[in-house]
């Protein structure tokens, strides 16, 4: 696997080694030992999730508060999405910054988000099947979210606003400044 660091410490783009021939292809989607050696992160995944969405769906920006914060390894197995990580670690020099990466079934590219990131994605293809591994179990009581269209974050979701489809729950998410404030916050992530 090839690992590329991003502008946010700990957020990584992963391109697996793909082996193909006239029969098809094979790749190792995750190897804990190799990931630890190449990334410096020790992570043990305990939950796998999958969602299917149609064009225009924006999911997020979601996160889990400590002690249930989650690191995630995400990928697309059908279609194309723009995947986004927002740094919400209050004492981070990149607090409020985001990294966006295009994930497609054809590229097999993956995106690793360490604890302390809000996560979301937009579906750019007719449909998309999205899979992600988490290193902590989902806990509804610790769930948090930030508005997908927060002007402070200035995320280009690569969709016209008129095409965006949100869940009722995500349509009520507040801006980052009303959810978490840097350095002087009372909520630690």
Structure description:
This protein is mainly beta and 189 residues long. The protein has helices spanning 32-39, 176-179; strands at residues 2-5, 12-15, 18-21, 24-27, 47-54, 58-64, 72-78, 80-87, 98-104, 110-113, 117-123, 127-134, 143-145. Strands 1-2-10-7-12-5 form a 6-stranded antiparallel sheet, with no helix packed on it. The protein has a 5-stranded antiparallel sheet with strand order 9-8-11-6-13, with no helix packed on it. A hairpin with a 6-residue loop joins strand 1 (2-5) and strand 2 (12-15). The longest helix has 8 residues, at 32-39. The protein is globular. It starts with a strand and ends in a 10-residue tail after the last helix. Mean pLDDT is 93; it is low at 184-189.
SSE topology sketch:
Elements: E1 2-5, E2 12-15, E3 18-21, E4 24-27, H1 32-39, E5 47-54, E6 58-64, E7 72-78, E8 80-87, E9 98-104, E10 110-113, E11 117-123, E12 127-134, E13 143-145, H2 176-179
Helix content: under 10%
CATH architecture: Sandwich
Q: How many domain regions?
A: 1
What is the H-and-E element order? EEEEHEEEEEEEEEH
Q: Can you give the mean pLDDT?
A: 93
Give a short account of the largest sheet. 6 strands, antiparallel
**SS-derived structural category:** mainly beta
How far apart are the termini? 30 Å
With strands numbered from the N-terminus, the spatial order across the biggest sheet is 1-2-10-7-12-5
Tell me the β content: 35-45%
| Rg, alpha carbons | 16 Å
The number of helical runs is 2
